[in-house]
Design goal:
Layout: H1 2-11, H2 13-48, E1 53-57, H3 61-70, E2 79-80, H4 82-88, E3 93-105, E4 108-113, E5 123-126, E6 136-139, H5 141-147, E7 154-155, E8 158-159, E9 171-177, E10 187-191, H6 192-198, E11 216-217, E12 219-224, H7 227-237, E13 241-244, E14 247-254, H8 256-299, H9 301-309, H10 314-346, H11 348-352, H12 365-392
Parallel strand pairs: 4-10, 6-9
Antiparallel strand pairs: 1-12, 1-14, 2-11, 3-4, 3-8, 3-12, 5-9, 6-10, 7-9, 13-14
Helix pairs in contact: 1-10, 2-8, 2-10, 2-12, 8-12, 10-12
């Protein structure tokens, strides 16, 4: 029966191709939409919970949060490091982690901070940066792989977060992070003092003096003893004006979870639109498969009659068409899954701009359910149509 089904499929290539395309589109889009939206949501939410509030220069709240937590976009500017000391002296604060972005290494962003910034991350090899030293770096797993780096290697960073001339002072790789399938895999981390030293040229690079890198930070990630203290500090520092070296700095304070909720709210709207489109495609899928099955049964009427005359039961004939469409459905859903993984690879750079690295091996249970559901949808019309046609033509036993 299987051999006959395969032979029959070979005769009806055009109809089968239409069914396969229909299933691949509906299943592929559905699985891809769910996977991307879920990974983006998980990736964004995972970092937001680390901090009670973020303090930085006045400007876009979303840009401040996304830059300091997910290394996206560019920093809003800088604020004095004295704010860090002020926060550390506050008994409501448990930690205040400085953050600065100023250089790049072969296209990978370089972040100046302290070891506390990486306390939740495991090392694949080597050690964490020593806050009392300088010119040390811990690199993400992707950075290490792409550049062939190992512990003990010396790297040379370039000025600015995207491009520029190479600094003369080298930085020693002391550790490599375990792969996390997050934006941390693509970043180089060094001491905040290292960035200050790199940019303290004594007038050698005066064209970059407006960046105020020496003794300043791009943001401060703060944890408090309880949520009420976070609200108090947010109110105190949001809009606060500080004087430093005869310059005026206006601060802003944001609550990361609130920013994340706003970002995910916009993403959810897009996700629902995609799911509606998937539902429409699914309906079209059912219609196409049903019509093609009816046509196949109509054109196969003589074939069915002949099989009945030679003693083949209608039960076996129905089984033939069910096996045929089951093979088509199974192959189509497998292709759809493979196509969705390829699309994840192609979408990697775009999603990385949101601070999330897509893991192509990540599979959610609802994805499997979507594929199983679409497989059943590809088979059920066949079962119904063969039964109806058999009744109408009085071919049933």
């Amino acid at each position: 029966m299987l051999k006959f089904a395969l032979k029959n499929m070979g005769i009806k290539k055009v109809q089968i191709i239409l069914i396969v395309i229909s299933i691949v589109i509906s299943a592929g889009v559905g699985v891809l939409a769910f996977n991307v939206s879920s990974q983006v949501s998980d990736g964004i939410e995972s970092n937001a919970g680390y901090y009670s509030l973020i303090i930085g220069p006045a400007g876009s709240k979303t840009q401040l949060a996304m830059n300091s937590m997910y290394f996206t976009d560019e920093p809003l500017g800088t604020i004095p490091y004295s704010v860090v000391n002020e926060l550390l002296a506050d008994n409501r604060v448990t930690s205040a982690i400085p953050y600065a972005m100023a250089d790049n290494y072969n296209g990978s962003r370089v972040i100046g901070t302290t070891s506390a910034f990486l306390k939740e991350k495991a090392l694949g090899s080597g050690n964490m940066i020593d806050d009392k030293s300088t010119c040390q770096a811990v690199v993400g797993s992707s950075v290490a792989k792409q550049n062939g780096l190992k512990v003990g290697d010396v790297i040379y960073t370039s000025h600015s977060a995207t491009e520029g001339s190479e600094h003369n002072k080298g930085i020693t790789v002391v550790g490599i992070l375990e792969e996390t399938f997050s934006v941390y895999d693509k970043v180089v981390f060094t001491q905040i003092q290292t960035l200050w030293e790199m940019h303290d040229h004594g007038g050698e690079e005066s064209e970059h003096e407006d960046e105020h890198m020496h003794g300043t930070v791009c943001a401060i990630l703060v944890n408090t003893k309880n949520p009420s203290y976070a609200m108090q500090l947010t109110n105190e520092y949001d809009g606060k004006v500080m004087e430093h070296d005869s310059e005026s700095f206006t601060l802003q304070a944001v609550e990361p979870m609130q920013i994340v909720r706003d970002v995910l709210s916009d993403a959810d709207d897009t996700k629902y639109i995609v799911f509606v489109l998937c539902a429409i495609i699914l309906i079209m899928n059912i219609i196409v498969i049903s019509i093609i099955t009816l046509l196949n049964m109509y054109h196969s009427a003589k074939e069915i009659s002949l099989m009945r005359l030679i003693g083949i039961s209608m039960k076996k004939i129905n089984l033939l068409y069910i096996i045929q469409n089951s093979i088509i459905g199974l192959v189509s859903t497998v292709i759809a899954f493979i196509v969705s993984r390829l699309c994840l690879v192609l979408m990697g750079d775009y999603v990385a701009s949101m601070g999330v690295v897509l893991n192509t091996s990540k599979v959610y249970l609802p994805e499997i359910l979507i594929l199983v559901g679409i497989f059943l949808i590809s088979v059920i019309p066949t079962v119904i149509c063969t039964f109806v046609m058999a009744k109408r033509d009085s071919l049933a036993e």
